Amino acid sequence: MELLLKLLPTTGTLVFVVVALIVIDRVLQKASKGTNRLRDQLLMIALTAIGILSVILALPISNELRGQILSLIGIILTAAIALSSTTFLGNAMAGIMLNAVRSFRIGDFIEIRDSFGRVTERGLFHTEIQTRERDLVTLPNLYLVTHPVRTVRTSGTIISANVSIGYDAPHDHVEKNLLIGAEKAGLKEPFVQIAELGDFSVSYRIFGLLEEIKQIMTAPSRLRAKVLDSLHEAGIEIVSPTFMNQRVFDANRTFIPEA
Question: Which among 245, 252, 220 has a CA at the least distance from the CA of 165?
Answer without folding.
Answer: 245
